[in-house]
Amino acid sequence: MYHQQLAAHRRNFVLMLVISWVLLLAGYFNSNVWVLAAGALLLNGYAYYLMQTDKRLAKEKGFRVPELSLLLVAFLGGGIGALEGMLIQRHKTKHMSFLILLPLFCIAQILLVIWLTQLYLDKSLVS
Fold this sequence. Notes:
By secondary structure, the chain is mainly α. The protein has one domain (2-126). The protein has 4 helices and no strands. The protein has helices at residues 2-29, 33-60, 67-89, 96-126. It is globular. This is DUF1294 domain-containing protein. It comes from Brevibacillus porteri.
């Protein structure tokens, strides 16, 4: 049973990451802000969902979402959703790795957005 749940989690995890990143990249390279925002929203929503699901499963003593999956989705763009899920659900708040890494991922992603926006504005002013 555990192996089936883990296989389903991995399949869904990879599928969500691929869809989100395709939207992010398509939006960035086509200069379509709405597609880019959809990818970011999907990724952060999925990170929040994973935190919420893991909290529920922890209470039920069922299959748990691997911590590496939670950290990886936060690192790959879902930092704000994962941090929000951690704080609202009060999940993983005693784990030092989550307390340190999730805010760092958020800061890095916000700085990346600012930098990419600046690049885009500079490119559009030159054209």
